Amino acid sequence: MHDPAVETLGVLETAGLLRELTAGLLEVTDFDEALTRLVTIARDAVPGVSWCGFTVLRAGEPAGVAASDARLAELDDLGHGPESPAMSAIHRRELVVSADLATEQRWRSWTDRAGALGVRAVLSAPVDVDEQVIGALNLYADTPDALTARRQLTAMLLAEHAGLLLAAVRGRARQATLAAEIDGSLLQEGVVGQAIGVIMTQRGCPAPEALQVLRSAATALSIPLREVAERLVVTVSRPREG
């Protein structure tokens, strides 16, 4: 029977989960940290889920895992073999579910290991991050039939949203690396390097802080960084009168 109240509640719960995930990953720049937060949020937020993991492939090769419980990390690790729900989800590009591992005929070796660890049901959803990284979000239950159709839909939405957020994390990481490289080159560059040295001497601060002082001045004056540096060097180079 169609129940609008239950349907509305489900929408609100999912929206709350996506908001929580967004808040958790909004300012993260480290990909591994982002995965750790993701699996923790998913484990705690999706009803019926006891554990959560994430399988990562970079340029088509296994590149790591994240797990809400280190004891189960081997289930997400492709180093134990390619036959697993995660790889099935990645290869097929669709949700893979086993409602009861006791009757599962796929991934026999994986299923045996999962059963020994107390896993009774599994769901793996493919996650597209960017052109270099793909993966699978793996949800585990300790009772059969816990991963209902409604929870499968939640997992699919979670995986799609996670892909967007993880792509943003990788983008921020690339920007941070580029900024660090630019900072390094600026520290070695002629007049800018001289200006940084002046500020370090005057303020007794490290080079990155001195560079930030220059940047703040350039922004406040609406002039290029190099021009600010030149003005500073010229000013301190002038002989004092008297």
Automatic annotation (TrEMBL):
Pfam families: ANTAR (PF03861), GAF_2 (PF13185)
InterPro entries noted in UniProt: ANTAR, GAF, GAF-like_dom_sf, GAF_ANTAR, WH-like_DNA-bd_sf
Domain of life of the source: Bacteria
Alphabetical UniProt keywords: Transcription, Transcription regulation
Signal sequence annotation: none
Sequence ranges assigned to domain ANTAR in this UniProt record: 172-233
Matches recorded under PROSITE patterns: ANTAR (PS50921)
Protein's name according to its UniProt entry: GAF and ANTAR domain-containing protein
Species of provenance: Micromonospora cathayae
Source taxonomy: Bacteria, Bacillati, Actinomycetota, Actinomycetes, Micromonosporales
